[in-house]
Every structure is written in C-alpha cells, then in structure tokens.
Amino acid sequence: MNIQERRNKDGKITSFRIRVFDHRDVTTGKQVFKTLSVKYDVAKSENWNRKNAEKEGAVFEKSVQEFTATDSCVTFDSYTEYVLKIKAQSGLAKSTIHNYGYSKRRLAPFIGHVQLKNLSPNALNRADTEMVEADVPSKYVHELHVFVHMVLGMAFKEGIIPRNYASAATPPKGGREPVTAISEKVLAAFLNALYAGTDNYVYQVFFSLMLATGCRIGELCALPWNNVDWDEGRIHINQHFVHDETGRHIEKGCKTTAGERWLYLDDNIMKMLADYYEYYKVEALKYGTKWHIGPKAVFSAPLKPGECIGPTTVRSWLKTFLKKNGLPHINPHKFRHTSISLQLQAGISVPDAAKRAGHARPDVTMNLSNGYTLKTTQKRRFYHKKRLPHNGTEAVLL
Predict the structure, then answer these.
(1) For residue 32, what are the contacts with CB-CB under 8 A and spacing of at least 6?
(2) How far apart are the first and last CA of the chain?
(3) CB 39 within 8 A of CB 51
(4) CA nearest to 83, candidates 157, 155, 143
(5) Is residue 263 a part of any domain in this protein?
(6) Pairing mode, if any, of strands 228-229 and 31-39?
(7) Are 246 and 338 within one domain?
(8) Same structural domain for residues 272 and 369?
(9) Residue 10 sits in which domain range?
(10) Checking DSSP bridges between strand 31-39 and strand 239-244, what pairing results, if any?
C-alpha cells in the first residue's frame, strides 16, 4: 500500500491518494493498481488526517485482497456500456440490447455521471424522485430501476461493488401489468365488432390466427406464404420482427430457443387461410409492379404493399378500432395470453401448450392459466380439441 499527499498551489494538503496492488496483467505483465482518494478534513489536525488516511487505506487494501473493492473511477454510464457489450456477446436478442441502450440514455442525466461506489440506496431513491418530478411516469421509473438493478448486479458479481445497492432502494410502484387473458365479455364484443363487416378482412384473419396459434405479434407479422404447409395443415414459425439500432426488420430465428416450431391448425382455419390467399393474389394483381413480391408476406403493410406488416401498424390499428367501437384497451399480446389460457382450460397439457407457444420453460406457460373460462357454446364456437400425430393434443380456433 502506498499513500501520497495531494497539495494545492499553496502547498496545503487537499487529499491523500492511496494506491494498492491488485493484479498483474496477463498480456503485458504490468502491475495493475486500485486507487482510493481520501479527502483532507480541514477541521481536523494534520496528524488526525494522516492516521485517518492510513485507517482508510488498511480497509481499502483488505477489500482489494478480498475482491470487494470498488473501482473509484468507473461511472454508471461507462460501466453500463461494458455490460451491454457483454450481454450482446452472450447472445441476448438485439432488440433487447436496443431497449437497454434506450434505458441507459434515459438514466444518463440522473445517474450516468455518478461513480458506482456512490450509487447508494439513498442516491438511487433521490434519482427516482428526480425522474418523477421531471414527469417521467412512475411505471417507467420502476422499469428503469429494474434495469439499474441488473447493471449493479453484474458489478457486484465482478467484485466492483460490495453489494447490489439497488436491492435496498425503494423505487415507485409500477412495472408490468399482471399477465391476464381477455375477459369473456370483452373478447365476444371485440369479435362481434371485428366481424360486423368486410372492411377489416385482413385483421379478421390476423387476430383469428393469433387466437388459434398463440403466436407473438412479431411472429405473425413476419410470416411468409412459403411457411404455410397446405398439405399438412400447419404453419412454420421461424422468424420474427425486431427493432434494433438498424431499425425495424425481419430476423431469422425466434425470441427463445424453443420459438421455432410447426403449428398444426384446424381445417376451418386452413380454409380461412386459403380464402385469404385468393384475396391476397387479387390484391397483388391490382398493384401490379408496385407490389413487393420479395418477402411474400401473408400480412401486407398498408404503405408498402407486399412487404410484411409491422407490429407497430397492427397495434396502431387495434387502438383506433377499439376506440371507434367503444371497447376497452387491449394489449395485442393479450390475444396470445388468451389463446394459451384457453388451451390449458380445454385440457391441453402444460408441456404441449408450452411447445405451441414457443416458451422455453413450461412454468412460464403455467403462469398464464388464470382461471379463464368460456361458456360451452363459446368453446364450441372458438375452440375444440384435436389429436394430431406430430404434436400431441392441440386447441385450435374454429
């Protein structure tokens, strides 16, 4: 351990710099040190300050030896940049990394410049309060706090900080809404409004297929006609829409390792798709050379006919449609929850429902079983059980 005095231009001591050997770089062979700065207390004597520096130095040296020392230089912003690189290398979805980057930028004005060692529970609570006072919704402040907890969790694992300070902080209430299915009454009202005419034909097929399969919205938006197996009565889910630093585009693969799957459909659903395919071909002829035939998208974008429709477009349409028909707000993802819940209520095993949903863990699927029930007549209208040779028992929309 080495203690050095830091003096100002008048020669007065302002602080003590403590340097402790940490390790030797395996590449260059050079010694790597950790440093600590102890401020000089002008209200105390010089002898007291020196002894205090020695005392702080002894504690710091011990923490370095026990791998619990805090790097006094690294800030939250710079360390978060490092964490995102590690997460990207580990294979985390690009869209998730993109969202994490946005969270990092939102936090920058409040704690980005703060050193990790100073991100105490009190400092985090004050930052949360500042965000709320800056009109950041409490729900989003809570989500940002979860992100901070993740970053500091890695800092703790790497021995940069002695504990995860975010665990002791008290963020505003918020977070995600509990996972629920659409209520029986709301679902019936939505379907009645949706099928009241032919103006919303594309979305009739889209949401019927979403209820029948339990697919994620990004998976259906990216579905090409090449992935419809007419002979076997099934569709292949093997790509999805993503939003990353390059913008919105289709990416091969799915959100989870279990995401790529074949989904068998009822004859009536396949008939619905066949009728819709005839409609698709007529629309393509209308646009002629303006029709983008590259992706052969099942659901075409309104402004770029022939290209895959984006999840944002579907969400925007749904929001307008619900408001126009006096229906309560429905998150599009709830159609997926409803489909899975109906399958479980119909007696489909959790492992089979998990495979159909593309869940990597069956316990995630089990969390969606929330007592959702339909009347017997509605079950006959929307779902029935069908024994299929390739994928067990499936619940499908009629």
Answers:
(1) 21, 22, 23, 24, 25
(2) 75
(3) no
(4) 155
(5) yes
(6) unpaired
(7) yes
(8) yes
(9) 2-65
(10) unpaired
CATH code, 281: 1.10.443.10
Cβ-proximal residues to 124 (8 Å cutoff; 6+ apart), any chain: 111, 145, 148, 165, 166, 169, 171
* Chain segment 2-47, per-residue pLDDT in tens: 899 999 988 999 999 889 887 777 678 888 888 888 889 999 999 9
State whether 299 and 334 are in the same domain: yes
> What total of structural domains would you count in the chain?
3
Domain of 98, CATH number, reads: 1.10.150.130
Closest CA to 68 of 162, 163, 156, 152: 162
Residue 390 near residue 262, CB atoms below 8 Å: yes
pTM above 0.85, yes or no: no
Note whether 160 and 189 are same-domain residues.
no
DSSP SS3 for 283: helix
94 contacts: CB under 8 Å, gap ≥ 6 = 88, 242, 244, 245, 251
Q: Among 36, 65, 94, give the residue marking a domain's end.
A: 65
Q: Residue count of the chain, please give it.
A: 398
Element (H, E) at 329: none
Segment 234-281, tens digit of pLDDT: 999 988 877 666 666 677 776 666 678 899 998 999 999 999 999 999
Q: What angle do CA 310, 313, 317 make, to 5 degrees?
A: 145
How many other β-carbons are positioned within 10 Å of the β-carbon of residue 148? 25
Same domain, 127 and 203: no
Beta strands in 227-380 (DSSP E): 228-229, 234-237, 239-244, 247-252, 261-264
- Residue among 76, 5, 6, 62 at smallest CA distance from 34: 62
- Neighbour count for residue 307 (Cβ, 10 Å): 18
CA nearest 10: which of 35, 49, 40, 33? 40
- Which of 225, 300, 218, 290 has its CA nearest to residue 251? 218
- Tokens representing 128 are 């949360």
Q: Which structure tokens are listed for 237?
A: 């889910």
Same domain for 317 and 236? yes
Residues contacting residue 48 through CB under 8 Å, at least 6 positions apart: 41
Which residue has 């929307």 as its token pair?
382
Shared-domain flag, residues 119 and 233? no
Q: What is residue 39's three-state secondary structure?
A: strand
Same structural domain, 381 and 285:
yes
